[in-house]
Design brief:
single chain, 329 residues, alpha/beta, Rossmann fold, 2 domains, 6-stranded parallel beta sheet, 11 helices, 14 strands, elongated, binds alpha-L-rhamnopyranose
Length: 329
């Protein structure tokens, strides 16, 4: 072998070794969502990809069941344990049902956090709330009440009955109902974050409560389906559909008047922040009360006594700003 060939071969072997060790160093973070096919989570995945790009040595595994069940998520978690991922960041369909599988993951050395929709304390190292739960609870009722000068009936169209985040927000909303005299909550129904079931539940509310003034849907799937149901029933102007939605999905409803206004935080930022937290904990940051853990461009999360932190405040969208945001998320 000529000297030059020898050098080249050595370089090639060195590069191959470097290649191997670089991929062995890759941190694999699984973003487990309530279900695939939900725009909100797809936006969060964009943020996760952005964080991965910034960190350089991260691979994101975007995954979840086909519908919003805890059973589906448990299967996904078990398969991620078998694959030996480094971290799992989950938005849970049920706070308790997924905890044993996640505990098993932690026992195997996998970092586990929840984000968006939380897991019971024993099943995760920390939880990232999008925003303060009391603030979201107050925001969703205020969005309805502000357009009901004479008061009247409102109903909630939620996601699943076991969904951690929606249940907390609805509880927080109920705590402040006294601040909105004359506004009566007549029913809470569940569309399971499925478009067709949410649509039918909204139709059911209109049939059962003919005087309904607002449907509050604290879910991006529910608000979109309910605005469609109200539109199809010819009830624009009679029933205002509000809650939490994506500007990209709600632009038509705002334009038509089916929805006067709605709120949301930035789901891209949420997926980005959850990824940064997972990475930092996987790399050694300790999730404990009082700890400050980096979230990249989103600053630091300061953990409370339950190892929870909140990202940012929700923002309200209406005719004045929806055009600007509908192409963002
Ligand atoms: C749906 C999901 C998600 C929730 C948003 C507002 O996309 O239920 O968990 O945070 O709505």
């Amino acid at each position: 072998m000529s000297v030059i060939k020898k050098v080249l071969t050595t370089v090639a072997i060195g590069a191959a070794l470097m290649g191997t060790s670089a991929s062995a160093d890759t941190t694999r973070i699984a973003l487990v969502v309530k279900a695939l096919g939900i725009g909100f989570f797809e936006a969060a995945n964009k943020g996760a990809q952005e964080a991965a790009k910034e960190l350089g040595d991260v691979e994101i595994i975007y995954t979840g069941p086909t519908d919003t069940t805890a059973e589906g998520q448990i299967e996904v978690i078990n398969s991620l344990i078998a694959q030996g991922v480094d971290a799992i960041a989950i938005s849970a369909n049920d706070p308790d049902a997924v905890a044993p599988a996640l505990k098993k993951a932690m026992d195997r050395g996998i970092t586990v956090i929840s984000w968006d929709s939380g897991v019971a304390k024993e099943g995760r190292q920390m939880h990232l709330n999008p925003s303060s739960a009391p603030l979201i609870g107050n925001t969703i009722i205020k969005l309805a009440a502000d357009h009901m000068p004479d008061g009247g009936d409102v109903a909630v169209l939620s996601a699943t009955a076991t969904s951690t985040n929606q249940n907390i927000w609805i509880d927080e909303m109920k705590k402040v109902m006294g601040n909105y005299p004359g506004v009566n909550l007549v029913a809470t129904v569940y569309g399971d974050d499925l478009a067709d079931k949410s649509y039918r539940e909204a139709q059911g509310l209109m049939a059962t409560y003919p005087d309904l003034k607002a449907i509050i849907a604290p879910t991006t799937v529910g608000i979109l389906a309910a605005s469609q149901a109200v539109t199809d029933a010819g009830k624009i102007g009679q029933i205002n559909v509000t809650g939490l939605g994506l500007p990209s999905e709600m632009a038509g409803a705002v334009e038509s008047g089916a929805t006067i206004s709605f709120a949301i935080w930035n789901p891209i930022d949420l997926g980005y922040a959850a990824t940064m937290l997972s990475y930092n904990i996987a790399k050694g940051a300790t999730a404990e009360p009082g700890a400050k853990i980096g979230m990249g461009r989103m600053g630091e999360a300061t953990l409370d006594e339950n190892n929870e932190a909140a990202m940012s405040d929700p923002f309200t969208y209406d005719k004045s700003n929806i055009e600007e945001f509908k192409s963002v998320f």
